[in-house]
Design goal:
Low-confidence stretches of chain B: none
Order of helices and strands of chain A: HEHEHEEHEHHEHHHHH
Helix content of chain A: 55-70%
Strand content of chain A: 5-15%
Structural class of chain A: alpha+beta
Number of strands of chain B: 17
Radius of gyration of chain A: 25 Å
Low-confidence stretches of chain A: 308-318
Helix content of chain B: 40-55%
Largest sheet of chain A: 4 strands, antiparallel
Strand content of chain B: 15-25%
Mean pLDDT of chain B: 81
Oligomer: heterodimer
């Protein structure tokens, strides 16, 4: 244009790649099924390290007014209060301490009593940076809405994909989505990372991102099905994945770059959240290439129905 | 796809300008804003409690407690009614969800039903009503038994009123702290959410809301006014109570109250039977009725004062002795102010216990740290995206970056205009949309490259790129939007803030990619065509 001189960008990725993704499908399926099984096993055996949102109890972040906090002293003081499980850990800076008190028996009011005990015991040497107290009534509600939110999102996405594509695509999508959610949950269980309300938001976004990727590939498959009426389905899936590969990688890289910026500079409070997103973007990209597309081969797509869509479909023909 | 009519270009430029104007206040300080001309928008994006620091408390009422209290006050009322109409009873007590009355003489049943039915109040709007009653007075199967049962609507109305009263009381209490920015809203059927920006230590707040509002009825000094008392000194046993000018200003009242709020059983807004003026009907419990009856008998024609939290609410004149235990407060009330006062009166009378079921407090220092962290992450994320896009797509990449900046501007403007609060998850959502916004451009540009490789001419390839990619963009972004909408719908607190920015971000990113970038590309094309140089796509 007038202000910006014309210059070409680097074409990062070699085009016309013919990587045989479908060759790995058996291996990938096996690996993914294994990963899902392990995640389920971890979820049921080891469980998740639920945050106060879902488990109830108190979370108190304090900052020492004079130099690094003495975790040992705090542990000793708070240990004698008889509040059950009290976890004390350093949080980001050496002055910052995170205290978690398990849910107290005796209903909602008991949590406030425990909180008061803790803050009174800590005394004036510490300033409160953050307090989160969730009673049993609210935590059970949050658990319920969290599960409903994830299921409802998956359902809405399936309905949309089913409506816009063939049912085979919807099946591929739902398997890929379930895979992404399960494996992310499994990772949280494996590393004992805190699972709270913000992680549910992350899961929902991972769903959105993953389906975004899947839809782009599916869209190309549908287009190619119309274009190459005679091509063998395996080759056609391969071709579609290869054709969209540069886009998949470039979008993935920019999203990951932004998430890494958030992870490093976004502060301690949202670190778990950004970790979930980072992991989810990677796993979501993987699943749309290695699970959602290959599954179409197993399910079989009838060309006639897809071509039929074109007539009344809104797809513009160039 | 590449032609833009003149008015379309004007519309796009206008949108961007509007975005600029509405987001502008966020880049300057509050002091600078004050000096701006009045036609400029000066609204800044409100920061959530997690960013500016503050307290968030969720209080819950116990519906069972409210029901129990109501049955107790109904029992007092029934006892009084029966005694007044000289109906003997051998039993009067709460049984399950109802109040059971055993009459001494079964033949009194019809009179009892008639008298007790006077206790029935319509539920709902004071003027229109809803046809439903708050209680049912029915005959038991056993001879000579009468049941008074709160209806479902009645209970719901009770809980709703208790919630409204509590919010009133809390509001007044909280205003005593000298801050005006707190918001106290009802959440669900029986919960109250308090948000208190800037408050770090919640001890004081918890103490204030932990207490019940104190309502008292006082004797007004018969001769000395508050002004006189202020000049000299108050007579023994009397004290000056402050009051609003609209309610007659300050009053000189006897220090010890005649009746206290605990003795008030009920208060309802209604209308005067004679002149149809809005009034407040109140009812004392037994001991209150006795004390108030004796007092009013001696003070007909003189005012008494209704005092709430040490402040005179009103000082109506006693027209006649009130022996029934129920009375009417009349004055220059509108329908609204009458119901407000009724609610206020009841907030003292119905001190239902509020339990804190959720608390989230963020100190200002942590909030400021989060804002800094979010800003830094956003800048770095934006820079990384801009560099990657420019490297990958050259001149067209720069157009995409311009589209990206417009996207950032518009999302900021939209959030400011709507008045959504920016939260930490909101910042994360915003930063994420930056990364995802590029996706639309990537889809378009990759498509253009493909079409070029397939041997299409420049114009055809660009046109095909935008047209074909749009379907994919719509499909992929709409599914993410669906997830975001569900997050907003089901989510609470942090999830909501994230969902709002994500949804708005998806919309503005589509606009930026398919409109702004496309306009820039079309302008480039127009310019290139005018040049003698070959039409080589800088992509």
């Amino acid at each position: 244009m007038f202000l910006v001189p014309d210059f070409k960008g680097f074409d990062f990725f070699p085009h016309g790649t013919r990587i045989d993704f479908m060759r790995f499908k058996g291996l990938c399926f096996a690996l993914s099924i294994l990963a899902m099984a392990i995640s389920l096993g971890l979820f049921f055996v080891k469980g998740l390290n639920y945050g106060v949102d879902f488990k109830g109890g108190s979370l108190i972040e304090v900052q020492s007014k004079s130099g690094p906090a003495d975790l040992g002293a705090i542990r000793e003081k708070l240990g004698g209060l008889g509040l059950g499980d009290v976890q004390i850990q350093s949080f980001g800076a050496p002055e910052d301490v995170l205290i978690r008190v398990e849910e107290q028996p005796g209903g909602d009011g008991a949590q406030q009593v425990a909180l008061k005990k803790v803050t009174d015991t800590l005394g004036d040497g510490y300033t409160q940076r953050r307090v989160e107290v969730v009673g049993p009534a609210v935590s059970s509600e949050l658990r319920r809405t969290g599960i409903i939110a994830v299921l409802a999102a998956i359902l809405a996405i399936i309905t949309y994909v089913w409506f816009r594509f063939e049912w085979q695509f919807a099946v591929g999508t739902v398997v890929a989505l379930a895979h992404d959610v399960l494996v992310t949950v499994g990772i949280f269980s494996l590393f004992n990372m805190e699972f709270d309300l913000s992680i549910v938001a992350a899961l929902l976004t991972i769903l959105g991102y993953s389906v975004n990727d899947t839809v782009v590939v599916s869209d190309r498959i549908r287009e190619n099905l119309r274009k190459f009426k005679k091509m063998e389905i395996n080759n056609l899936l391969n071709l579609s994945i290869n054709e969209t590969l540069s886009r998949t990688i470039l979008t993935g890289v920019t999203t990951i770059a932004v998430l890494i910026a958030l992870y490093i500079f976004g502060g301690e409070v949202i670190r778990n959240f950004t970790f979930a997103m980072l992991f989810g973007v990677v796993i979501g990209t993987y699943s749309s290439i290695f699970i959602a597309a290959p599954i179409l081969d197993y399910l079989g797509i009838k060309r006639e129905t897809v071509v039929g869509v074109e007539k009344d479909g809104k797809t513009a023909k160039v | 796809m590449l032609y833009f009519s003149r008015w379309k270009i004007i519309a796009i430029v206008a949108t961007v300008l509007a975005g600029l104007i509405f987001s502008l206040p966020n880049f300057v300080s509050k002091e600078t804003l004050a000096s701006w001309p009045s036609f400029m928008p000066t609204q800044q994006l409100p920061l959530g409690l997690d960013l500016r620091g503050g307290a968030h408390l969720l209080l819950a009422m116990d519906p069972e407690e409210i029901k129990k209290d109501w049955l107790t006050s109904l029992r007092d009322a029934a006892r009084k009614t029966l005694r007044d109409s000289k109906i003997g009873y051998s039993g009067l007590g709460v049984q399950g969800p109802s109040l059971q009355i055993k009459l001494s003489k079964p033949e009194d049943k019809d009179t009892a039903l008639k008298e007790l039915r006077k206790l029935i109040q319509p539920v709902g709007n004071a003027i229109l009503g809803s046809g439903a009653n708050d209680i049912d007075v029915t005959e038991g199967t056993e001879a000579g038994t009468v049941f008074i049962t709160p209806t479902e609507q009645g209970v719901r109305e009770r809980i709703s009123q208790a919630s409204a009263s509590s919010i009133e009381t809390i509001n007044r209490r909280v205003n005593n702290l000298g801050t005006s920015e707190s918001t106290i809203v009802r959440q669900g059927a029986d919960r109250i959410l308090i948000q208190f920006p800037g408050l770090q230590d919640t001890k004081e707040l918890k103490r204030l809301i932990g207490e019940t509002a104190k309502l008292t009825f006082h004797e007004v000094h018969p001769s000395t006014t508050a002004e006189d008392a202020k000049l000299t000194s108050a007579p023994a046993g009397f004290k000056v109570f402050p009051g609003d000018a609209s309610e007659g200003g300050d009053h000189l009242l006897r220090d010890s109250p005649v009746v206290q709020g605990e003795d008030l059983a009920d208060a309802q807004a209604g209308f005067d039977q004679q002149n149809g003026q809005p009034v407040i009907n109140f009812r004392f419990n037994q001991s209150g009725a006795r004390k108030f009856g004796a007092f009013t008998k001696e003070n007909v024609g003189r005012p008494f004062a209704i005092v709430l939290d040490g402040k005179v609410l009103s000082a109506p004149v006693i027209r006649e002795a009130i022996l029934s235990g129920s009375g009417q407060i009349s004055g220059s009330y509108t329908v609204e102010s009458a119901s407000t006062l009724a609610v206020q009166l009841k907030s003292g009378a119905l001190p239902t216990k509020l339990t804190i079921v959720e608390e989230r407090t963020v100190g200002p220092s942590l909030g400021a740290d989060s804002v800094d962290a979010g800003r830094r992450a956003g800048m770095i994320g934006l820079a990384a995206t801009a560099i990657l896009t420019t490297l990958a797509y050259g001149t067209f990449g720069i157009y995409a970056v311009i589209g990206l900046l417009v996207h950032g501007l518009l999302i900021l403007a939209l959030m400011t205009a709507i008045g959504t609060t920016l939260t930490l998850p909101g910042i994360a959502g915003f930063v994420l949309t930056i990364g995802m916004a590029v996706d639309a451009n990537v889809l378009i540009y990759e498509r253009i490259r493909e079409e070029l490789r397939a041997g299409k001419g420049t114009i055809a390839a660009i046109d095909a790129g935008f047209t074909r990619a749009f379907v994919t963009i719509a499909d992929s972004q709409l599914t993410t939007l669906a997830a975001a909408v569900i997050m907003f719908w089901l989510g609470s607190g942090p999830i909501r803030g994230f969902a709002v920015t994500l949804s708005l971000g998806i919309l503005t990113s589509i606009f930026a990619a398919v409109t702004i970038t496309r306009l820039l590309v079309s302008l480039w094309l127009k310019n290139a065509k005018g040049n003698t140089k070959s039409l080589e796509v800088p992509i």
